[in-house]
Amino acid sequence: MSGAKGVQRAGWAWNSDLSYAAIGEQQVSDTVYRLPRVERFGDRSVDGQRYTSEDHLAAEIERVFKRAWIVVAQSSAVAKPGHVAVLKEEGVDVIVLRDDKGQLQAFQNRCMHRGSRLVHKSGPYKRFECDYHGWRYGLDGALESAPDADGFGGVDVCRIHLETIRVTELAGQIWVCLDRTQPELEQQLSGIADELSPYQLEDMEPIQERVFSVPVNWKSMLENAFDYYHVGKVHKRTVHAHVTESPEIALYGDHIRQNIHIAPYRWRELIDRRCSRGGPYTARQHSRLFKYTLFPNTMINVLPYHMTVMRFWPDGVGGTRLHYSFCQRRGARGVEWLRARGTWLASRIILAEDVRMLARCQSQMDASVVPQHLLHDFEAASAHFHDVLGKWMTQIK
Ligand code: FES
Ligand SMILES: [Fe+2]
Question: Is the minimum distance from the CB of 135 to ligand 1 under 6 angstroms?
């Protein structure tokens, strides 16, 4: 246990006043976190409706997903000119690409004639052609041609352009933001970008990318990924035996960092030091798994030789589409290659344990039966997540 001071919270109650200034946004030392003692059950709980209400989900899409920075794809998906990645999830349908000049571009995935969907899958493109009436756009988003273009009553259709959106590249990911008023991503991440820079995450490439459909609310899936209360039960035959201490938590504004020492054995340390390209790393970055939960829906888990990226997208109120990607450093060989593959295998086993449990016991949650979810200290990250969610849900656009 370390970091006796750590991040202290003045209060914890999203049902009442949210006092964010008191959270100590820039204070990022780690601490084993304890939620405050409370008199009443309801002061330490999450409203069950948050997991079951259609209205709540609709508001999340409008007020959170359509306003926050979100990951569309890994940088490797648009590494070369003409490479295009598409993301279509609830409330979001966007194209990102690397243009001929090597610049990133991002557009709403809609033809500007009658609003048809323009690009249906990721891959290399020279231009985009709409399936409906055949308007053609260049990779810069400008309309290049339209059949019988003189039939629009004198309107100069060649001035038409796809709807552009904000795009940036950070931590080996391509991000977009549909809201023009939000701060830049790097500023919004409150120092996380600097902290991630030794890992050189743009050098990571996927071993496996998959989308899993799980029949539980997206927040249940996300919270499970940072909840340590279930580890002793669900993972008792796997990772639990190799974790000897409680996770530490640090808050970065809206985001959460946890770190945990998994398999703290001498042999592991020796192997890891041989695998650690990039850097320079701190001793803790060498040995500990750092888990960054980047609000609203992205989790990046890193050690010097691998990265897991999980993005949790709502799929109706009772479903999640989990975009899972496990990456190793480009050019990994020998021990480093084996180390990454071994961790990937372990990560898939642990994920399967989680998905099996969640699908079995959390689907069709009923808020009328369990109106409040009571949180344990080991679910403290959930408390912060719901505070932040509450803040975004009540902010006036
Ligand atoms: S809707 Fe795209 S060309 Fe008509
Ligand atoms: Fe788990």
Answer: yes
Show Cβ contacts of residue 219 under 8 Å, excluding neighbours closer than 6 positions. 50, 51, 312, 385, 389
Q: How far apart are the C-alpha atoms of 233 and 216, rounded to whole Å?
A: 19
Please indicate, yes or no, whether residues 81 and 59 belong to a single structural domain of this protein.
no
Number of domains into which the chain is organized? 2
Q: pLDDT tens digits for 2-36? A: 333 333 333 333 332 222 222 333 334 566 666 76
Q: Are 130 and 144 in contact (CB under 8 A)?
A: no
pTM of this prediction exceeds 0.85: yes
Answer yes or no: are the C-beta atoms of 300 and 292 closer than 8 Å.
yes
Q: Do residue 374 and residue 236 come from a single domain? A: yes
Distance 393 CA to ligand 1 centre (A): 35
Residue 191 lies in a domain: no
111 CB near ligand 1 (under 6 Å) = yes
**254 and 162 inside one domain:** no
CA 39 to centroid of chain Cα atoms: 34
Of 145, 177, 209, the residue that ends a domain is 177
The pLDDT of 93-113, averaged and rounded, is 96
The domain of 103 spans 69-177
Give 375 Cα–ligand 2 centroid separation in angstroms.
16
250 lies in the same domain as 146: no
With the most atoms of ligand 1 within 8 angstroms of its CB, the residue from 109, 111, 128, 162 to mutate is 111
Asked if 45 and 119 sit in the same domain, the reply is no
Amino acid at 316: G
